[in-house]
Amino acid sequence: MKLRILGCSGGIGGNLRTTSMLLDDDVLIDAGTGVGDLSLTEMIRIDHVFVTHSHLDHIASIPLMVDSVGFMRDTPLTVHATAETIAILKQHVFNWKIWPDFSEIMNEQQPCMRYEPLELGKTVALGGRRITPLPANHVVPAVGFHLESGAGSLVFTGDTSTCEALWDAVNRIDDLRYLIVETAFSNVELELAVRSKHFCPSLLAKDLLRLKRDPQIFITHLKPGEVELTMREIGECVSGFIPKMLQNGQIFEF
Known about the structure:
This protein has one domain (about 1-254): 4-Layer Sandwich (Metallo-beta-lactamase, Chain A), CATH 3.60.15. About 25% of the residues lie in helices and about 30% in strands.
């Protein structure tokens, strides 16, 4: 399996792109603004989008992508999300007011887009790849994902704050190589982090004490203008691990 980072910022501006990751060439893990850097040919190849949660920075490119390539595809684009997230997408995005409902718009004899509900802990198998939703703790219903190739595993937490159930699940993964975990705010913004259910460095450090595996750790969702400060605070707060900043364009093979 190969995971390519298309976007990993908590905002936009300059070369910053929001959360989106391309698994091999046919699966997106979230679909933030980074998807817009793909060519039409690359977007046509995408058959599946796995959504952690409904916030705009993680789903912004789904409406635009299906509009751009939906009629060029032979099969519907499948959006995998929890039932709660699907309901939000239907009510607030694909509602004919914000954007057309592409699950109703037909390409030949089939819709351009379809939904596939996810269940926490229930694995979706795509060829030799396994994708399992993990617990997360956010202000809207949310999950992380365990990506498993058979030779190694990667965990992406999605947006979350303190979540004991997440670490219980992660600690059961024997072949964990990589952990991509969010830290959206600096310690100065602890109150905002708590209210919005994101990590700041001090909260991340406390949660990582629960981690019993030894993966390489990468930090995502850093806010523009606070990247250096937040990473410095992570270095000061976290013990036992040396987290690195996730980079746009980075590739993980496992």
